[in-house]
Structures are given as C-alpha cells and as structure tokens.
Amino acid sequence: MTSPTDIGAALQQDGGEGGAPEPFGLGSSPLRSDALPKALGIYPYAADLWAEGLLWGAVLRSPHPHARIRGIDTSAALALPGVHAVVTAADLPPGPDGGPDGAPAGPIVADRPVLAAGVVRHHGEPIAAVAADHPDTARLAVGLIAVDYEPLEAVTDPEQAFTAPALHPDGNLFRHLPLRTGDPDAVGEIVVEGLYQVGRQDPAPLGAEAGLAVPRPDGGVELHLSSTDPHGDRDRTAACLGLEPDRVRLVVTGVPGATTDREDISFQVTLALLALRTGRPVKMTLTREESFQTHTSRHPALLRYRHHADAEGTLVKVEAQILLDGGAYADVSAEALAAATAFSVGPYVCPNVFVDAWAVRTNNPPAGRMRGEGALQACFAYESQLDQLAARLGVDPVEIRRRNAMATGDPMPTGQAVTCPAPVGALLEAVAAEPLPALPVDDPDAEWLLPGGPGGAGDPAAVRRGIGYAVGMVHMLGAEGEDEVSTATVRVSGDHATVICAAVDSGQGFATLARQIVQTVLGVSEVYIAPADSDQSIAGPSARGRHTWVSGGAVERAALMVRHQLLQPIAANFGMSVELLQIADGKITSYDGVLGMPVAEALEGKELWATAQCRPHPTEPLDESGQGDAFVSIAFCAMRAVVDVDIELGAVRVVEMTVAQDVGRALNPRQIEDRIEAGVAQGVGLALLEDLRTEGGVLQNPSLTGYRLPTALDTPEVRIAALLEERDVVATFGAKAVSAVPAVVAPAAVAAAVRAATGLPVGRLPIRPEDAVAV
Amino acid sequence: MLPASLDEAVDALAATPAAVPVAGATDLMEAVNAGRLRPAALVGLGRITELRGWRYEDGGTAVLGAGLTHARMDRPDFAALIPALADAARTAGPPQVRNVGTLGGNIVTAAPAGDTLPVLTALEASVTLARAGASREVPVSHLLTGLDPVRPGELLTWVRVPLLHAPQVFLKATGRSGPARATASVALVLDPARRAVRCAVGAVAPVPLRPLEAEAWVAGCIDWDGSREIDPAATAAFGEYVAAACVPDSYGAEGAWEAVTEGPSAAAVRLRRTVSVLARRALGRALK
After folding, report:
1. How confident is the model at residue B203 (pLDDT cuts 50, 70, 90)?
2. Mutate to test the interface with A, among B38, B90, B177 (most CBs of A within 10 A)
3. What is the pLDDT of residues A92-148, one digit of tens each?
4. Is B230 within 8 Å of chain A by CB?
5. HSE, side-chain direction, 13 A CA sphere, residue B152
6. Lower Cβ count inside 10 Å, N or C end of chain A?
C-alpha cells in the first residue's frame, strides 16, 4: 500500500518543488495549493470544526409536502435533560403584521421562511430546531416536538400550478417571460415538433451542510460555514435575525463540493439563532437525507418546441413554451427562466422567435442555482429539435448545425448582438475532425467494457454504437441589470505577496488563478491567498463563472497598482517612465534590456498595498417582449458523444466525450480541462442517472444509494479537441468562464448519441433503461 | 464483545440475546447511522478466523464460512469452485464494500436485491444456525421466506453449497456501468448429474423466485449426453417462460385486481422484458 507520505512526496514532485521549476504565472498549470491536503484527507471542512463547550443542533422537518400547522408543542422536547433550547418561527423577528412569519429570505425574492410559520410548502421544510449537549439528545428532542398538522392537497404537477389555489401569499407564478421577435406568420417548408422533459438533478455535494456558530460578546454571532457568498449570506442572516450586518461575521471554511449556492439560508440562520439563544457555540451537521431535502436542485422542465425551416434546413421560425418547476420557493427561478428564454434557440440564427416561458410554484422541493440553470434545459430541447430536423432533411447533424450557426455580431432572439467571440462553427469543426474511438471489432482481443459494467449482463451482439453532436451556450456573470462587482486587495511585503479577496474558492480554482495573476503582474513567486470572510470587502457569490472575470479583474488591478508603486522610484532612478519597465523571470528590466534589477532587491524592506474593484459593463432587464441587452458575455461549447447501448436491456455506456470549448484565453490549461471533465461528468449524470424523484411531493431517493451519481465507471473518457482562444476584449485577460457550459451541453450530446444508436426519439432526461430499449 | 472463536461468540449471544452479531457492518452501520437501529450490544465476528474460509465435505459439498468477504469470493480459486457466487460477489458493490461485506451478512440482511441470494437459492444451499450447545441446518430459501427464521441467540455460521462441476451464471441488470443495486438478477446453474437446470430470479420480489416449471421444461430441451446444445428458440422461450413466471401482471400497479383484468401493467411488461433477456443470456452463456 502506498502510504500518505509517499503520495505527498509524489504530489510535491509533480508540483515541481523538487527538481523542475514550479509553473509560474498565467498560461501555466500550477497545482492547486489545497490539492495535497485534500488528497491526504487533512483538509479541514466545516464538519471538522470544534469549539470548547459546544452544543449540537438538530432540525425538525415536515413529513408533508403541504400542510397547515395548527400548533407546535415543544414542552416535551424542552423537558428532556440536556436540551438547551428549542426554537420555532415564533423566536424569529415578527413579520409586518406583528405575527411570526418565519423571517422569509431568499436570493432574489424573500419568500422562503427560515422556520415554517403556519404553513409547510415542501417535504423536509424546517419547522423547529433544538440545541442539546449531544447530537443524539438533539435528535431525540426533535422527535419529541409535537406538531399538529392539517395536511393540504399538494400541487406537484407544474401545469396545475396555474389554476391551483395560491400556495403562498406571493402567488404561484414566479415569472412569465414572453419573447417575441420577427414575423409571427412566417412559416417554414419543414416543421418539426417535440415535447421535452428534464428531471430533477441534485447538486449532491460530497459534504452535507455543516457549520459552527459562536456567539460574540457584542450580541452578534460568528458563523463558520462553507458559504460561497459570504457577504450575501451574512446580510441575509443578519436581516432574518434582526441584527445589523456588522454584528454577523461569516468565516468561510473548506467547501466540500459546490456546484450551486452552498449553504441554505434556513440552515445558517437557525444555527445562528441557536447560538444566540443558548450563548454557547452550536454545531450542526445535516444528514444526507436532510441535505437532499433542504438544498435546492435543478429546475425540472417541460419544453414544447416547434421549429420551422426551409428546404435547405435554414431556420425560419422557432416557437416554444417552456415551463420550469421552481418548487416551493422562488430562489433564482426568475433568473433561470431568463436564461432558458434568451437561449431558447441556442447558438443559431433565427429571424422569427416566439417563446412563452413560465416559472411556477409547486409543493415540490425548491429549485435553484446549478451550473447553467435554465440554459441546460433549453439546450436539450433545441438540440433535440435540430437532430429531428436533420433526420427529416436527411442531412448530417453537424451540417445542419453549421448552416445555422451563430457568429460574432449576430443577434440573439433578445435583440442583443453577440459582441463577444462566438466561434460556433469552428467548435463544431474541431469536434467533428477528431478521430473516433475504436470499435470492439477493430480490437477483439482487448477486454471491452460493455454497457452494464464489468461482470455485468452485457452481450456484444445486442450492443449498438451511437454518435451524437450538440452545441450550447451559457451566459456569464449576473444578468438583467444585476450589479456585478468584486473587490480585492494585494499586499507585497519583502519577497512574498498576499491576496485578500472574499471570492470563495469552492473548488473551481480561483485561489490558484489569483496566485497566477499576481505572479504574472508582479513577478513574485510566493503568493499567499488569505482565507475568505465577510469582514473583507465584498466579492460576491461564486456562481455563474463570475470570479475569473470580476474578482480576477480586481486582483489584476490591485496588483497593477502595487506594480506602479514598486516601479515608480526605480523608473525615476533610471530616468525613464514606468511603462518602459517590464517584470519577467524575477527581474525588472528596462525596455532595451540595458538597465535592470531583481524584483527581490526592489522589494526589500518595502510593504506595498493596493485595493481595487472590478465592475463589468452594465446590463438591462428583458422587457415585456423579451428584448434587451441582458447579458455581459456568453460562452460556447461543442461536444461529440459516443455511446454504446445494449438495446435489449436499455443499458447505456458513454464511451467518449469529445469537447471543443470557447475559453477566450486559457489562463490555466490543466484547471480548464479539470473543469470540463467535471462538467461532462455532471452532464452525463443528468443524462443517464441522476433523478431526485418525488411521489406526491415526497422525496423517494434522498440517499447516495438511491440517488445515483456517476462513478468512475460511468464517466467517459473526455477528449479535449480544442480550447479555442479567441480573446473576449472586454473580459479580464480576455478569458471566459469555463465551468458551466460543458454541463449544459453534455446531456444534449448524450441524448443525441442514444437517439443515433437506438433510433428512438429520446425526449426525456435522464434517459431510463426502458427509454433505450429498441427491439 | 469481540469473541475469538465460534464457541465464544455463541456463548456471548446466549448471554445477551439482544446483541446483534456484526461482521462487515456495511448494512448494519448504515441503519445505525440513519437512526433506524440502535443495537443494545454488538458481537463482533471479525476475530473468528475459522469463519473466513471454507472446507469440503463428503467430496460433493463446500462448507463456506459466513465471514467470507465478497472480495475473497471473487478470487480465481473460489471462482473455479462456485462461479456464479463469484460473479455475484464481483458485482455486489464498490471495492470498499466488497472488501468487508460478508456472505453471511448478505444472507441475514436478506435485502430483496441481495446479490448472493439468487445464487444460493439456485444452488439450493443451506445454512447452519448455531446456538450454545446445538446447531441446526436450514435451507436458504426457508430462511429467506421466513418459513424458518433465525431465532434469538442463533448465529449464522456456515453455508453449505453443493459442488456441481458445471457452468453457472449470475447476471444482473442495473442500468449503469458502475456498481449498483440490481433492478433484476438471474442466477442459473446446471446440474449435469441430475440433468437439471436450476434458476432463481432476484430483486423482483422480496425473496429470490424459482421458476420451477420453466426449469423442468428447459432441462428436457437440453442434449445432456452430447455437447449440451439447445435450440436458440428454446433459449428465447425459456427467457419468456421465466419472466412470465416471476413477474405477475399486477407488478408495480396500485390496485392489483384492476390491473389483472386489464392485462400486465406497463411496469410488469418492462420488468419481464429485462428478466427474459437476462434468463436467455444466462442460459446461453451456461450452455456455450
């Protein structure tokens, strides 16, 4: 067995601390600084935190998807020895009418109570919480809280939400977004129609929600959480507790997996409330089942499409109806809906587009942010439609896409011109040009992994191979007028630099990138990234691929300001302007290479600080016909999926995914490849395996056995055909966000390949075995 | 309690009948962590080395220790003895589970999708239940159906499996490439000495099911004296026969009566198709 120290040594060698020089600056691929501790299992996550004299929290959750709470009796729980506090909605600040309203909060609309007041609207909604001196005591006390429920009829079909009685004072419609452009009477020679469904994908982070709250002597509270939006979470927590934001401090601990907003507001407010009530540190770790119940999942969607095209396959008109099931609370449904609507045609040009999109409230688990929210559901539908169109015309699926592909400067259906690079055609060419993986007949001696896995029931005679293509797009940064801003401070002292920025590295690699930026600008190799907390200046959430651009931009500007401070006296000394000096290989040299000095010498005894902000150009909301410049920039990706399908059992194995992505500029190629692999794995999971099922609003599989995440055997070989570097001139370093778009495109590509293998329509994700049986 | 021998373990159980014996704990700890089970005491079987191996008896029977892990059963020496059990052990889960999960644990947990159970049912295996001063022999099928359950104070010690020296197959459908719970599984063993085919279908019902008529019928279709060939049409018919026998029309339907009058439910049709393909492939592989 390899001992941990061996692995450590190997990793360190790989990182280059032994012989070869460590990768330095932008464009190189240094090892993540947390890679070693994470591989060794010594990286601290929130669940590992400890404080002297801490109490344990536990939450009572609703067994009903929809019920009125007639009364809550906490006396038995309070009487249990070891219980220090029991809190309900009545312990939170009262609502506008003076009665308890559960202190509703939420990212866009504050409609989700911290603890249910009067009504529960989804299975697993928190109702009360307990702090006790032992986790078992806390859970026992939770069981002793008597709640008198009056079960109400649950609205679980999003199509019923329009006519059902209002489930919430805000009504059942989160947003209706119509998009109208062009001639409504345009008709194409060829018309294809389809109905598409997308199931409920859960982020299923490896680490369940956990946190520690410590009361502060000033009446405030300090929260240690794996938050991905420290300032937003702090502000919402303070508002729910009726405290000034300054009295709440949020310290970000190690994030155990995040492809979404990490902590839910109810969890952290409850934790803070228990700590304030007991005056003692309180720790809470959710079980896997609770984690599935409480965090938001991907919006299940129903999409109805009609594409009109001329005889050559050029799009004439697209009509669509899109329905997103937002679950019990609004969360970011409005934003997801905007993406689904604006990208409803995909990276194609179409003059006439008529879309109606709705996001509605049901008694299903709340849906929220998850890589490419909205864009993913639309991508599955429009790409399926293009496959249908290609089949109808007898044209190659790549050709039909090429004929309609969007290019830089083309308008989107929202009227916004795509001013960033849109190399859709080039991406398609790149994936189509890659060689295909070998077929088992080409290499009969090799042991082939058949659908069904090793030692499975696979029979080579029943296996069919399919190849499918898909292209997709996703926007970066906040949309529709959201104020995007990030702040960073760079400090250089002696031979090392420090970056202070509240941008959370949730695993996406921002800390590594920040280090590379400072190395490039200042020529300092030792760069320390300070842990994030809410006392630093605001950087915003880790979502929508914004940190590379916004926080990366802030770090760059701060570093440039430090650089100016550093070079100014030297330039004066040399008798030239600062612009004529450059920093490379640890040395400052003049433009002609005659004068120079080492960076270390220039920095000696100095301490230089600078803080800077980055705020990309503003956007505007979509108007009543879905028009407006709503997005800052857009990223594109093309994929080719190769699948093997056992057409008798319906087992599917994705053999290979070939990816070509528009990255603007590859700032850290290895990290980009990692992100693409992660996106592909998540997309393949949605395409074939992941579905958080509900029955009458009640979760059916809230466990990692029931909810099937892709394992190493389910995840395909990922071949990177191209990372196209066409710089986006307005973006920081010209780079585009890379994480979301692979997850958006992969499900559509897998569906196309299964369609090719089986000849079946495949209108539903995930593709169940019975949807792939073709005999 | 951590007894070092079988006798100590049996005595410990006799002294504390409420204690739960624990071997790999892959099922037990999941239940404990989820709060479904809070055992009064545990009897750890990890130190009883004699249960981790096997021996032979009367030339024709292997006596397997209940503590055999899935990983151990997957090794070539064991696979040569009882191939179907090795197949089942190989696909039972990820390596972490197979390294500690045991044969005895799989039987006692008696999960509907337990992978070794259809194999043991098809092999007509029996188990030894030991208690202080006595032990008894119970067929696996009686234990699983609850006809003759484990009594308080009893410990499952040995599993008796006939050695058939003929092809055996275990196939499962999971709908994915990685390790997963079976949606249906089929174990099929040939018994040339008795000119019999024995088959059990797992995961479709709370216990593995034996399609006895289909077995008897297909045994008559095989040329036992020659190369054991069979008409491909008979293989396909066997698949259908097994599926029809093991999946009722009302499978997955809410109101059983209503469903019967309307023919098989959609879920039954799907599951029958899967079982039929598995049974056909299993027979095909066994006779290859």
Report:
1. very high
2. B177
3. 999 888 888 888 888 888 899 999 999 999 999 999 999 999 999 999 999 999 999
4. no
5. 6
6. N
Query: Which of A293, A448, A648, A686 to probe the B interface (max B CBs under 10 A)?
Result: A648
Q: Is the model's pLDDT at A4 over the cut of 60? A: no
Backbone angles phi, psi at A204, to 5 degrees: 40, 60
CATH superfamily of B168-286: CO dehydrogenase flavoprotein, C-terminal domain (3.30.390.50)
Q: Chain B: give the shortest CA distance to residue A387, in Å.
A: 25
**Mean of per-residue pLDDT scores for chain B:** 90
With beta carbons less than 8 A apart as the criterion, state whether A739 and A370 touch.
Answer: no
Indicate the DSSP class of residue A94.
Answer: B
Q: What is the rounded CA–CA span in Å between residue A683 and residue A198?
A: 12
Q: Which of chain A's residues have a Cβ under 8 Å away from the Cβ of B94?
A: 711
- Considering just the CA atoms, what is the radius of gyration of chain A in Å? 27
The reply to whether B281 touches chain A by the CB within 8 Å rule is: yes
DSSP state of A525: S
The pLDDT confidence band at residue A261, using thresholds 50, 70 and 90, is low
Q: Has residue B213 got a pLDDT over 80?
A: yes
Domains and CATH numbers, chain A: 4-43 (no CATH), 55-152+209-285 (3.90.1170.50), 301-479+621-772 (3.30.365.10), 486-614 (3.30.365.10)
What pLDDT is recorded for position A482? 87
- The per-residue b/e assignment along A112-144, b for 16 or more CB within 10 angstroms, e otherwise, is bbbbbbebbbbbbbbbbbbbbbeeebbbbbbeb
Mean pLDDT taken over chain A: 90
Answer whether A459 sits within 8 Å of B91, measured CB to CB: no
- Res A97: pLDDT: 85
Distance spanning both ends of chain A, measured CA to CA: 47
Strand order across the B196-202 sheet = B168-173, B184-191, B196-202
d(CA A281, CA A84): 12
Q: What residues of chain A lie within 8 A of the CB of B178, using their CB?
A: 453, 710-714
Query: Is B6-162 a CATH 3.30.465.10 domain?
Result: yes
Judging contacts by C-beta atoms under 8 Å, the chain A residues touching residue B34 are 287, 289
Interchain contact, A713 vs B179, CB within 8 Å:
yes
Helix (H, G, I), strand (E, B) or coil at A686: helix
Identify all chain B residues contacting A287, using CB atoms and an 8 Å cutoff: 33-34
Tell me how far apart the 2 most distant CA atoms of chain A are, in Å: 84
Say how far residue A93 (Cα) sits from the centre of its chain.
32
Please name every residue paired with B248 in a beta bridge, in sequence order, or none if there are none. none
Whether residue A766 is preceded by a cis peptide bond, meaning omega within 30 degrees of 0, is yes
Strands lying side by side in the sheet with A486-493: A526-529, A496-500, A486-493, A607-614
Locate tokens 């220090």: which residue? Answer: A84
When pLDDT is cut at 50, 70 and 90, the band that residue A540 belongs to is confident
pLDDT in tens, B144-155: 999 999 988 899
Asked if the C-beta of A135 comes within 8 angstroms of chain B's C-beta atoms, the answer is no
Contact criterion met (CB below 8 Å) for A15 and A31: yes
The yes-or-no verdict on residue B64 having pLDDT over 70 is: yes
Give me the residue spans of the domains in chain B. 6-162, 168-286
Contact residues on chain B for A139, CB-CB shorter than 8 A: 35
Residues A539 and A231 sit within 8 Å (Cβ to Cβ): yes
The residues pairing with A697 across neighbouring beta strands, listed in sequence order, are: none
Candidates A452, A454, A768; nearest CB to B173: A452
A287: nearest CA partner in chain B: B34
Sequence-distant (6+) residues with CB within 8 A of A382 are A305, A318, A344, A345, A346, A348
